[in-house]
């Protein structure tokens, strides 16, 4: 299978040096991602396109297309068939084989592009192929302005290709072709969507988490961070940085006027984020703020918050309503994580200031012990995002079961999209579909007299959650690990 990839429109209008650099980034990103599927996949390119050749007979077509549709900087992915050029009749014959059924009852148009020297014009081949399709099928007719089906043929010297199915890419800029940022993540709808939008814009991102809710909260944030990086940013390494912020919260509540708690918390986060970003060569901070969504996000308060940082603060969601944000979260697959993520509102006062005065907030902050914030920064833990799941395992020993008893119940803890692509089928065992992010909530409602075996493709997620459940006192949890 051969694929023809076009860059996003914004890449195509760049100056020559910038476009050359962005196309180089795009080819490199595609190679990195696809090489994990098969090292024999060939990635090449030119000024305005990237070509991908997938070895035949390995069942990778749908997997490769799915990967490409999630790489920033791609406008379209076109499946093409390549043939040696023999004659216009041969081109027409191949076009009929590919499109006769697809144009029945529809309008169509033939588009031909030529490169090289030939004894015919592009319009001659368009008419020849169009006539053959009219005779071989029953279309509504030719519509050159707005056809329902386009038959695209490109001739390159002594070869030609016919374009088949076309798939939409993410658009945006190739990841890594712009600067690096630090994205503040909480695991909710807003921060995950903000992270996605920045990656789509070509910004490489590290992920910064201020832990307000303990281990359970951090596990959930690690999971959604790994998910979004693996799907949209895995061509580049990234760090997950966890900062213990409970001490800072305690200092805020002891020293700050309760009406300023929310604003001061945001300022303390930005102060810490600025310090950490500089040490990670990140030139901007990304947050999930939207105007007026909560009291700390009025324009007045955002202005006060921003004065705490020397770095530019980017807010891709600033004008979005919650409905739009949730829809994007559904589209990119983070909505199930966010929906079950706990909220931690310990520093929200009953009557928060919506138009805080900078000098009064700074006076409150002056009463705080600055060493507490520095201690939180110094106590941070940094983990490569690629290793997040393996580092969230617990020391609890979990038994692996290769052949389940007929009475064992298998719990498939994979994300629903994974389960749809490769469903788990058992001959004699009951299989429950409970995504890992719903497991803690639903495990209590399951009959306690049975043994449950958690399952996922690689065994990482199932072992991690089995360990957590065992640590919480669930003795009837094991891991189903099919013998390979």
What does this structure look like?
This protein is of the alpha/beta class and 484 residues long. 39% of the residues lie in helices and 21% in strands. The protein is built from 18 helices and 19 strands. The strands form 3 sheets. An 8-stranded mixed β-sheet has the order 2-3-1-4-8-7-5-6. Strands 13-12-9-10-11-14 form a 6-stranded mixed β-sheet, sandwiched between helices. It has a 5-stranded parallel β-sheet with strand order 15-19-18-16-17, with helices on one face. α6 runs parallel beside α7 (214-232), α8 packs across α9 (261-279) and α9 crosses α10. The chain is globular, with a radius of gyration of 27 Å.
- The order of strands across the largest sheet is 2-3-1-4-8-7-5-6
Note the main sheet.
8 strands, mixed
Low-confidence stretches: 391-395
State the total count of DSSP E strands: 19
Relative helix content? 25-40%
Strand content: 15-25%
Indicate the mean pLDDT: 89
Taken from the alpha-carbon principal axes, the silhouette is globular
Q: From the alpha carbons, calculate the radius of gyration and give it in angstroms.
A: 27 Å
> How many distinct helices?
18
Rounded to the nearest angstrom, the distance between the terminal CA atoms is 29 Å
Give me the secondary-structure category. Answer: alpha/beta
């Amino acid at each position: 299978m051969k694929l023809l990839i076009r860059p996003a429109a914004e890449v195509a209008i760049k100056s020559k040096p910038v476009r050359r650099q962005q196309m180089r980034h795009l080819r490199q990103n595609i190679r990195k991602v696809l090489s994990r599927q098969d090292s024999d996949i060939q990635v090449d390119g030119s000024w305005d396109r990237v070509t991908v050749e997938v070895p035949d007979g390995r069942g990778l077509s749908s997997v490769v297309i799915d990967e490409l549709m999630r790489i920033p900087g791609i406008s379209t992915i076109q499946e093409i068939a390549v043939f040696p050029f023999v004659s216009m009749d041969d081109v027409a014959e191949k076009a009929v084989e590919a499109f006769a059924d697809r144009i029945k009852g529809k309008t169509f148009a033939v588009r031909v592009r030529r490169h090289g020297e030939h004894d015919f014009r592009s319009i001659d081949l368009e008419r020849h192929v169009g006539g053959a399709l009219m005779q071989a099928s029953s279309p509504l007719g030719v519509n050159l302005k707005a056809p329902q089906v386009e038959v695209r043929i490109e001739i390159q010297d002594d070869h030609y290709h016919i374009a088949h199915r076309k798939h939409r890419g993410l658009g945006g800029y190739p990841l890594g072709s712009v600067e690096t940022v630090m994205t503040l993540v909480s695991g909710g709808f807003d921060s995950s969507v903000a992270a996605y939008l920045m990656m789509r814009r070509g910004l490489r991102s590290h992920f910064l988490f201020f832990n307000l809710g303990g281990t359970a909260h951090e596990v959930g944030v690690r999971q959604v961070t790994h998910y979004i990086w693996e799907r949209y940013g895995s061509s580049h390494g990234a760090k997950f940085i966890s900062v213990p912020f409970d001490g800072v919260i305690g200092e805020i509540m002891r020293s700050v006027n309760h009406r300023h708690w929310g604003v001061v918390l945001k300022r303390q986060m930005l102060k810490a984020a600025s310090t950490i970003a500089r040490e990670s060569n990140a030139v901007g901070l990304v947050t999930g703020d939207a105007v007026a969504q909560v009291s700390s996000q009025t324009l007045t308060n955002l202005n006060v918050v921003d004065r705490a940082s020397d770095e530019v603060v980017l807010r891709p969601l600033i004008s979005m309503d919650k409905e739009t944000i949730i829809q994007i979260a559904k589209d990119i697959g983070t909505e199930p994580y966010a929906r079950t993520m706990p909220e931690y509102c310990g520093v929200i006062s009953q009557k928060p200031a919506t138009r805080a005065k900078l000098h009064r907030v700074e006076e409150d902050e002056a009463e705080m012990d600055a060493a507490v914030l520095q201690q939180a920064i110094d106590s941070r833990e940094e983990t490569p995002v690629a290793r997040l799941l393996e580092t969230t395992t617990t020391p609890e020993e979990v038994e692996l079961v290769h052949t389940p008893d007929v009475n064992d119940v298998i719990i498939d803890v994979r994300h629903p999209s994974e389960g749809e692509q490769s469903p788990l089928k058992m001959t004699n065992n009951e299989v429950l579909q409970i995504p890992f992010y719903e497991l803690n909530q639903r495990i209590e409602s399951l009959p306690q007299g049975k043994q449950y075996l958690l399952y996922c493709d690689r065994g990482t997620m199932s072992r991690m959650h089995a360990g957590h459940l065992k640590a919480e006192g669930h003795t009837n949890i094991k891991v189903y690990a099919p013998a390979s």
